[in-house]
């Protein structure tokens, strides 16, 4: 196999593993299921109120980022549980930091939602 061929095969394998990860997240993680459900509801509301292209971009980006950050948080929790299943203040600190990252973007998402939707309803 040439170097170029193995590069492409490795890239295809990476996409396959990433897809498997996305399926695992959606099928096993309740927090991800909730985020996806909220994303679908917001998309339906977006069609009802008639978002502009810019508003669609912002909303889609926000939904995607929330799900991605939540997924990374889940991965960090899994690593923490694997390397130290017992109680440890440092593990608690690491998990709190990861949860904090989700919280920060959740607040931003609510602000973006208010900026988009408040003028449409009031
Ligand atoms: N092994 C541990 N040692 C110390 N504190 C922990 C430990 N596991 C969890 N905690 C504390 O409990 C909090 C919740 O942890 P947990 O792993 O249950 O996350 P969660 O947000 O409930 O998970 P999920 O996203 O799956 O609902 C952590 O943020 C941390 O403060």
Automatic annotation (TrEMBL):
Mn(2+), Zn(2+), Cd(2+) and Co(2+) support activity to lesser extents. A divalent metal cation binds at residues 29, 77. Substrate binds at residue 70. GO terms for biological process: phospholipid biosynthetic process. InterPro entries: DAGK, DAGK_sf, UDPK. Keywords: ATP-binding, Cell membrane, Kinase, Lipid biosynthesis, Lipid metabolism, Magnesium, Membrane, Metal-binding, Nucleotide-binding, Phospholipid biosynthesis, Phospholipid metabolism, Transferase, Transmembrane, Transmembrane helix. It holds the Pfam family DAGK_prokar. It is found in: Cell membrane. It is a multi-pass membrane protein. One of its GO terms (molecular function) is ATP binding. The chain crosses the membrane at residues 21-50, 97-118. Coiled coil: none annotated. ATP binds at residues 17, 29, 77, 86-88, 95-96. Its cofactor is Mg(2+). Gene3D superfamilies: 1.10.287.3610. GO terms for cellular component: plasma membrane. The active site is at 70 (proton acceptor). Belongs to the bacterial diacylglycerol kinase family. This is Diacylglycerol kinase family protein.
């Amino acid at each position: 196999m040439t170097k170029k061929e193995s590069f492409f095969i490795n890239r295809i394998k990476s996409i396959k593993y990433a897809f498997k990860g996305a399926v695992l997240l959606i099928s096993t993680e309740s927090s991800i299921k909730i985020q996806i459900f909220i994303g679908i509801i917001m998309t339906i509301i977006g069609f009802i109120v008639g978002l502009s292209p810019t508003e669609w971009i912002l909303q889609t980006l926000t939904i995607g980022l929330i799900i991605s950050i939540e997924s990374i948080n889940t991965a960090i929790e899994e690593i923490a549980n694997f390397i130290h299943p017992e109680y440890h203040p440092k593990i608690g600190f690491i998990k709190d930091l990861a949860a904090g990252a989700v919280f920060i973007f959740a607040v931003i998402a609510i602000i973006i939602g208010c900026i988009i939707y408040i003028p449409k309803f009031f």
